[in-house]
Amino acid sequence: MSDKTSEDLSYSFATIDQIYEDGITLIFDGEETASEKHYKCNSFCVFAAGQRVRIVKDSGTYVVEYPVGNPNADAILPTGGSDGQVLTKDGNASFSSKWSDMKGIPSGGTKGQLLSKRTDESFDVEWSAAPKNYIPSGGSNGQMLVKDGSTDYSLKWTDTPVDHIPDGGSNGQLLAKNGTVSRALKWVDAPTERIPTGGTDGQMLVKDGTTSYALKWADAPENHIPTGGTDGQVLLKSGTTNYTLKWGSLSVYRLYQSTQNYVDLNSSRALVPHASSSVYSYSLGTRSIPWYSLYTGDGTSRICGTRGTLSFFGASGATKQTLSLSSNNMSYTSVTANNYLIALNNLIGILKNKYGLIA
Known about the structure:
- The chain is built from 2 helices and 20 strands.
- The strands form 8 sheets. The protein has a 5-stranded mixed beta sheet, with no helix packed on it. Strands 18-19-20 form a 3-stranded antiparallel beta sheet, with no helix packed on it.
- Helices cover 6% and strands 25% of the residues.
- It starts with a helix and ends in a 5-residue tail after the last helix.
- With 359 residues, it is mostly beta strands.
């Protein structure tokens, strides 16, 4: 059916097909298809698709006046409800509503209190003091509120930050902590004013003396590492100039402990301890931690001097003994047929009891 045909005829009723922002499409009584035209409607009524409506023809077009049907069939307000209930949304469908109790407002409370959230549950609120009741009395012009302890809503008046900024200072200075007192500040030179002038590409800042913040430009460590070198070489001091190094092979020719305490491996292939006097005061091992094996070559081996002591098998050191021909003083003259038993007995005593060489 064309719009021209429908508007040439007179209709009093129709059924709503679709509702659009700019009007309503209608299925006129006796027709099967909806109109293409969007008709205006009574903006005070709530319409829905499928409703049977009263229409009126005016100035060559139709206006939808109101829904018609059984009593309360298309009512927007739900049935039922009790005294004091309010309308709330009932699902996501348009105009769906229901009667429900008003939630969230607790009983009690005093004049001036406000509703505040108590937990994360819906409508869980309580009466609490208004913000003005948390503002402490007193205070002076320009002060501000800060937290006063850990109690909720506890506040106090304190000086504003501007009151903590010290007087004086010069152009470019910065604020720094001044002692341990809270908010105590002082003016200090900016870091840029402590950077010395000059310097060359690649240099770095190092301490210059003991004065605080004193700096100077110096070559970076990599500038002191010489070029070249071969696999296995190490850095050695090169001359007396500061930071001068050279690559070289590690050659240990001295066991050094101090200027008066060292051992040299000399050009004669002798391991010679330094002597602070005519007598070498060095030990090769100790009696508690002896050398396990000691090997000598085909040359002369000297064990100790005339004043030395000799120990064997862990025995205490003993002085050089003299072979005796008597059982008392062991004064040696010669061994004869008459005294050889005494000499032999004393020799055995020296080897066994003095030196511990035989068991």
